[in-house]
Amino acid sequence: MAYEYVELAQEITIRRIYTVHYFEYMNDFYYAGESHDFWEFLFVDKGAICVTAGDEHLNLKKDEIVFHKPNEFHNLWANGQIAPNIIVVSFETDSPQMSFFENRCFAVNDEERRLLAELIRESRKAFSSPLDTRYLEKMELSDSRPFGSEQLICLYLEMMLVKMIRRLRQSSTPRVAPPRLKSHPDTYERICQYLATHIRSKVTIEQICKDNQIGRTQLQNLFREKNNCGVIDHFCSLKIETAKQLIREQRMNFTQISSYLGYTSIHYFSRQFKKITGMTPSEYATSIKALSDPHSSENKA
């Protein structure tokens, strides 16, 4: 038989990565802006952020993304109330399909969010440069990066962009069938929602099992599979993530935050904070404020 190959079209190809950032900002953060000759997108992981994109002023909230085309001026600032967590990725591509993202801002779905999370996770392995360092002109590759790490970063990004274009094009097409009812969240998502609503309480494994009708072994196995830790350790991390956001919003002092989140004392709260983040609450507040200070050495362009 005479076999003939099939030429596979590459709709979007990422040629170079410039930056991959995950930032935690204070609620009064301001960045004056820039423009450059490559693509960039900003995704709001938590909170909200205000963005200028060319001539437009946008207010982005959690799970929303905006793309900046090459040479488009863009800046950003917090709204003075909510402390945002944002992902910023800049990259080079000459794919014509990227024109789809010009002047686009939209919400990201669960599948696209998962790919973005994988991109960040792989970037932490691939680069020795911290992902929260601003004005970084070149990210340094880690000598101990896993095999194929750089390729996976490109693949996750390309998959995310392709999935977005496919979804958004389909959503603009009239549907004959009625919309499907939203399914109930799976067990893991349901328990995560439960923990979020009890973030100010002290919960036990027994209480979580009872309220969510799940066995103790199944519960622990589920969270070890998803997070490589037990459910209580995950809950403690959620509390500290909430504490970090409250610190950045600057409306409560450390004692008030400790009480708000149900800690028995400020000292126990501080120990837990340092155990999980490697910093005391005061050290964290100082490091985050440095990002918002335009005169700090790290923020020099």
What are the main properties of this structure?
single chain, 301 residues, alpha+beta, Jelly Rolls, Arc Repressor Mutant, subunit A, 40% helix
Walkthrough of the structure:
The protein has 301 residues and is an alpha+beta fold. It folds into 2 domains: 16-170, Jelly Rolls (Sandwich); 187-291, Homeodomain-like (Arc Repressor Mutant, subunit A). 40% of the residues lie in helices and 18% in strands. The protein is built from 9 helices and 9 strands. Strands 1-8-3-6-9 form a 5-stranded antiparallel β-sheet, with no helix packed on it.
- Main beta-sheet annotation: 5 strands, antiparallel
Order of helices and strands: EEEEEEEEEHHHHHHHHH
The number of distinct β-strands equals 9
Query: Low-confidence stretches at least 5 residues in length (pLDDT < 50)?
Result: 173-184, 297-301
Structural class: alpha+beta
Distance between the termini: 62 Å
Number of helices: 9
The percent range for strand residues is 15-25%
* CATH homologous superfamily caption of the largest domain: Regulatory protein AraC
Proportion in helices: 40-55%
Concise synopsis of the structure shown:
This protein has 301 residues and is of the alpha+beta class. The protein is built from nine helices and nine strands.
How does the SSE layout of this entry go?
Layout: E1 16-24, E2 30-34, E3 39-46, E4 48-53, E5 56-61, E6 64-68, E7 74-77, E8 85-92, E9 105-107, H1 110-126, H2 149-171, H3 187-197, H4 205-212, H5 216-227, H6 231-249, H7 254-260, H8 266-277, H9 281-292
Antiparallel strand pairs: 1-8, 2-7, 3-6, 3-8, 4-5, 4-7, 6-9
Helix pairs in contact: 1-2, 6-8
